[in-house]
Design brief:
Blueprint (H helix, E strand, L loop, with lengths): L2 H4 L11 E10 L2 E11 L4 E5 L6 H8 L7 E6 L2 E2 L5 H8 L2 E4 L11 H12 L4 H14 L15 H13 L5 E5 L7 H18 L2 E5 L3 H7 L2 E6 L2 E7 H6 L3 H8 L10
Parallel strand pairs: 3-8, 3-9, 6-7, 7-8
Antiparallel strand pairs: 1-2, 1-4, 4-5, 9-10
Helix pairs in contact: 4-5, 4-6, 5-6, 6-7
The protein binds adenosine-5'-triphosphate.
Adenosine-5'-triphosphate (ATP) binds next to α2.
């Protein structure tokens, strides 16, 4: 069976807030996504894994409409995001929360104002209501005493938690995490994972993660998708992925140097 054939879709009874159908994307002469299809399961945590440079971050950018595919469809809540107006796309984007690698905080704004930013930009809530919402989120991520600090006055782990609080502040239906654990030590990675899991249990939503951290994927995810050369080579429940006897899946998840995956 070819790699493309092995990449399955999940049982159709699952709902899908995001469906990606046969997307391709090249930058210049370099083909990054090559006919990628994946339907993400609603209200689940799905991790997308794959070798470096295989297109994971490019996929996330497509989901939120920051990149347009050369071909194929990205359907969010039933709408093909490139067949709707700019206003509709903007409205859909507000249903996403995004946590980038470094938290992507504004360096000149304190933590409170960073978390308040989406509320001030996208809602007409009064400052008192904004204050309540921001402090609730900061308490949830354990940063209520750091509200007045600037991003460079707190640790990397705290910045990620602040970025997470900001990603959640508009109650998004979908949250995208691009390597949330990069640069964190193992204990802080575990603490952040626990926090992500707790917040998912508490608030629900469709969480999509990209990470290189296999223990993170195992601990957090309900589903795992494995990307290679711009296409999906495995997709299914996390336990199934970790029990897989497929050579590529096994090699990737165990980090074995022997197997179909080489340096190129
Ligand atoms: N805007 C862009 N212009 C040109 N090339 C790009 C652009 N964005 C991404 N690429 C290229 O696309 C390829 C895939 O990048 P991407 O960041 O998605 O990989 P990744 O799987 O997330 O890798 P990593 O795990 O190392 O972060 C890389 O070769 C990258 O250089």
């Amino acid at each position: 069976m070819s790699i493309a054939q092995r990449a399955g879709t999940l049982p159709v009874e699952q709902a899908h807030a995001i469906r990606v159908h046969n997307i391709a994307k090249s930058f210049g002469s370099s083909a990054v996504l090559r006919g990628l299809s994946i339907d993400f399961v609603d209200n689940a945590i799905t991790t997308v894994l794959g070798p470096s440079g295989t297109g994971k971050s490019v996929l996330l950018k497509h989901l939120v409409g920051l990149e347009a595919p050369d071909q194929g469809e990205i359907v969010v809540f039933g709408k093909d995001i490139w067949k709707i107006s700019e206003e509709e796309r903007y409205a859909l984007r507000k249903r996403f929360g995004v946590l980038f690698q470094d938290g992507a905080l504004f360096g000149s704004l304190n933590i409170f104002d960073n978390v308040a930013f989406p509320l001030r930009k996208h809602t007409d809530l009064a400052e008192s209501e904004i204050g309540d919402l921001v402090m609730t989120r900061l308490r949830e991520v354990g940063l209520e005493h750091s509200a007045a600090k600037l991003p460079n006055e707190i640790s990397g782990g705290m910045r990620k938690r602040a970025g997470f609080a900001r990603a959640l502040v508009l109650n998004p239906d979908i949250v995208l995490f691009d390597e949330p654990d990069s640069g964190l030590d193992p204990v802080r990675t575990s603490l952040l994972n626990d926090l992500i899991k707790e917040m998912h249990t508490e608030h629900g939503g469709t969480y999509l993660l990209v990470t290189h951290n296999i223990p993170t994927a195992r601990r957090l995810s309900d589903y795992v998708g494995l990307l290679w050369n711009g296409a999906l080579v495995h997709y299914g429940p996390t336990d199934e992925a970790f029990d897989s006897d497929d050579g590529f899946v096994r090699q990737f998840l165990t980090g074995d140097s022997v197997g179909p995956l080489g340096m190129d």
